Amino acid sequence: MYKIGDYVIYLKDVCKIADIKKHYLNDIDYYILVPINDNSLKLNIPVTNTSIRGLLKKDEVNAIIDNIINVKVLETDEKNIEAEYKKLLQSGNHEDLIKLIKTTYLRNKERIDKKRKISDIDRNYFDMAEKYLYTEFSVVLDMSFDETKEYIINKMTEVQANE
Questions:
Q1: What is this structure's pTM?
Q2: Mean pLDDT of 47-64
Q3: Per the count of CB atoms within 10 A, which of 26, 48, 55, 66 is most buried?
Q4: Residue of 76, 70, 68 whose CA lies nearest to 129
């Protein structure tokens, strides 16, 4: 069981446990979760809910970041791309989020290089994947969202320079 003040992932959002209370009708313990990206929202979730998980540990985050270079981009045809993006995003798997970020980034870069407009689908899925991945990483690494993004970019630049 988590404690008040702990950070957890509920569905895909990072939340802080603001309180733990017993429900007055059914005597079940509930976490009062506050998503860190929306302090106005309070979620009452039974402590037995299987959609809650703890955040990664710092060494796990660094191992994932070190492995980003090895994550392959998505290879699919244009008509199935959004369905594939949706599957990757819904999995909640860190490697799938990285695959989504890499794929959309490279597709957007290719369009920009050809002086074409980037697609709304690529931009939207890129933004959502970054939000889910970097928000958790930022809490674990004790950095801001932007610092986390910069940290990962710098690590990737280092790795590429050493290849």
A1: 0.88
A2: 94
A3: 55
A4: 68
